């Protein structure tokens, strides 16, 4: 059950992150970033997640 909770939490943070990036830049920005620079997306996501890990 804890694994499901962690997975749901992780999924929610990813969804929030995607929404934030698309609002800051433009709709579809995140999709383009994932396609063109997946390493940058992953790095940005880890930084974002780090803000909520404390």
Q: What keyword list fits this structure?
A:
54 residues; mainly alpha; 3 helices
Please tell me about this protein's structure.
By secondary structure, the chain is mainly alpha-helical. 81% of the residues lie in helices and 0% in strands. Helix 2 crosses helix 3 (38-50). The two termini are 22 Å apart.
Summarize the biggest pleated sheet: none
| Number of helical segments with 4 or more residues | 3
> Mean pLDDT, as a whole number?
86
Question: What class would the helix/strand composition place it in?
Answer: mainly alpha
Radius of gyration, rounded? 12 Å
- The termini sit apart by 22 Å
Strand content: under 5%
The percent of residues in helical segments reads over 70%
Q: Kindly state the number of beta strands.
A: 0
Please outline the helices and strands.
Blueprint: H1 2-24, H2 29-36, H3 38-50
Helix pairs in contact: 2-3
Summary, kept brief:
The protein has about 55 residues and is mainly α.
């Amino acid at each position: 059950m804890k694994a499901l909770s962690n997975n749901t939490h992780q999924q929610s943070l990813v969804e929030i992150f995607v929404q934030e990036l698309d609002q800051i830049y433009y709709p579809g920005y995140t999709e383009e970033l994932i396609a063109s620079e997946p390493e940058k997306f992953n790095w940005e996501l880890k930084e974002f997640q780090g803000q909520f890990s404390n």
